[in-house]
Design a protein that fits this description.
The chain has 5 helices and no strands. The protein is mostly helical. The protein has one domain (13-132). α4 (56-92) runs antiparallel to α5. The longest helix is centred in the middle third of the chain and has 37 residues, at 56-92. The mean pLDDT is 86.
Length: 147
Amino acid sequence: MLLDQDSREEDIRPWNMDINSFCMLMHLSQFASSVFPLAGIIMPILMWQQFKKQSTIVDENGKQLVNFMLTSVITGIVSAIVIAVIALGLFANTRAEQSGFTLLWAIVILFLVIGLGIAYVIFIIRAAIQSYNGNIGTYPLTIKFIR
């Protein structure tokens, strides 16, 4: 989805950057939690809130980003519950045949969670590249909470 920049938006330089670079940084700032806890949640939201009224491009990218973060939190919570149930099943089973079946499910879920983590990183980088190229950075498989 490509947005046309009007002359008013071309004059805006958030944090002394062009709009596309700022939007790219906004998407990539989700990785800030790797260094400081919760920074990857707080920083992109603050960046979006600071400039959303001045630029429709920043606003649209911010909405996509927040929708992705909310979807990621929900996915993480569901994954944690499923893993907890399987782990409890592993420890509660005393019969060997049930324990092996549950262990198989635990391995499958583990690979799915690793896959979700890899997809999370790829989706962020993909959205950052899209926004740098002047498009709205979109995330696949995202629930649209904010429209």
